[in-house]
Design brief:
Helices cover 29% and strands 26% of the residues. It is α/β, with parallel strands linked by helices. The chain folds into two domains: 3-63 and 142-206 and 297-350, FAD/NAD(P)-binding domain (3-Layer(bba) Sandwich); 85-135 and 209-293, D-Amino Acid Oxidase, subunit A, domain 2 (D-Amino Acid Oxidase, Chain A, domain 2, 2-Layer Sandwich), CATH 3.30.9.10. Bound molecules: flavin-adenine dinucleotide (FAD).
Length: 351
Amino acid sequence: MTHTLIIGAGITGAAIAWNLTQRGEDVTIVSTHAEGGLASAASFGWLNASFYLSQAHYHLRHEGMAAHRRLTERLTSLPTTWQGCIWYEAAGAAQDDTAADLIALGYRVDRLTKAQIADRLPALGPVPETALHFPEEGQSDPATLARALIQASGAKVIRATVQTLTHDKGRATGAVTDLGPLTADRVILATGTGTPALLEPLGQNLPMLKRPGLMIATNPLPPICPVILAAPEQEVRQDAEGRLHAPASAGHQGDHAETLGSFPVVVNATLVRLRALFPGHEIHFAHQVMALRPVPEDGLPVVGQGPIQGLWVAVMHSGATLAPVVAELLAAEMTEGSESPLLASFRPGRF
Ligand SMILES: Cc1cc2nc3c(=O)[nH]c(=O)nc-3n(C[C@H](O)[C@H](O)[C@H](O)COP(=O)(O)OP(=O)(O)OC[C@H]3O[C@@H](n4cnc5c(N)ncnc54)[C@H](O)[C@@H]3O)c2cc1C
C-alpha cells in the first residue's frame, strides 16, 4: 500500500486525505496548526463560481461546488448549506454584463427587481434597484469541514512543523520535522502560504501574493440575512447561531490590499457598514480571525506534480470552494495516472 504524507491540515490537506483513504491508501497528515488549518480557519467560506479569472477557473470552481454536493451526499452533518447569493456589487451595465457572461458559461442567474429583493431581504436598509441571484451558491466553514474530513478519513495526524523535504535519486522520500524525520512513498504539500519555503530548496519558484484577510463575527442576531449577500458596501453571511460573518474588506474576492490598517479602525468601519445594511439591529463585534490568503501570483490554483517524482503540490485561494474538486482530481491522478483537463491550466510548472 502506498503511504502518503500530507503536509497541512486545512481544507486542502483534509480533502485530499479523505479522497486517498477512500481509495484504500494509507495517509499521515503533519501540520503546524491543528486540524482546520490556517487560512481555512479564517475563511468567509462562500462557495461560488460567480467570481472567476478565466474560463478554466470558472469551470474548476463550478465543479468545486458539485464536489461539495457529492461530499454532503457521502458524509452527514457537514457545515455546508446552499442558500444562494444575492449579488449587486456592480450595477447597471456592469451588472448586466456579469449576468450575460455567467449565463453564457451555463451558470444559473436570476435577475431580481427592487420589490423582489425587498421581499427576500426584509431587514435590508438600502434596497438596490436590481440584483442578481445565484441560486446554486452556498457557504461552508472550511475549518469545521476539514476536521470532519480528517476524522472520516481515519488519517493519522501529527502536530509538527516540516523543516525540509527529503528525497533520494530524484524521488520524494518524506520530510524532516522539528520532532524528527517522517518517511513516505508520496508527499503532498497542502501547506498554503508555507509552500514556497518548502519548494525553494528544490529549485521550484512559487511566487505568492501578500494578501492578509480579516474576518469579523458579530453577536447572534435574529435571522436577517437568509442568503450570502454581496453588496457594494459589504459581503456578509449569517451562520446558524445568527452571527454575521463579514470580511473587513468590502469585496474580499477582489481585495488586493497588502496591509490591513489599524485593527480598531478596520473593525469599526466594517461594523458601520453592517449597521447601514441592516439598520434597526444591535450589531456588535464578537470576535475576529486573521490569516494570509494563500494566493499564487497569478491568482490561480497551483495543483499537480512538483519538481521531483512523488512530490505533489496543492495551493490555492478560493480553497473553500475548490479543495473538494482538486482533491478528487488529484487523488485520481496520483492513484490512476489520469490527468484531468480541468487541472491543465493550473500546473506548478507555469512559474
Ligand atoms: C479572510 C479570508 C476569506 C476567504 N474567503 C473565501 C471564500 O469566501 N471562498 C473561498 O472559496 N475561499 C476563501 N478563502 C480562501 C480559502 O479559505 C483558502 O484558499 C483555503 O482555506 C486554503 O486552505 P489550505 O488548506 O490550502 O490552507 P490553510 O488552511 O492555510 O492550511 C495550511 C496548512 O499547512 C500547514 N503548514 C504550512 N507550512 C507547514 C510546515 N512547514 N510544516 C507543517 N505544516 C505546515 C499549516 O499549519 C496549515 O495546517 C478565504 C481566505 C481568507 C483568509
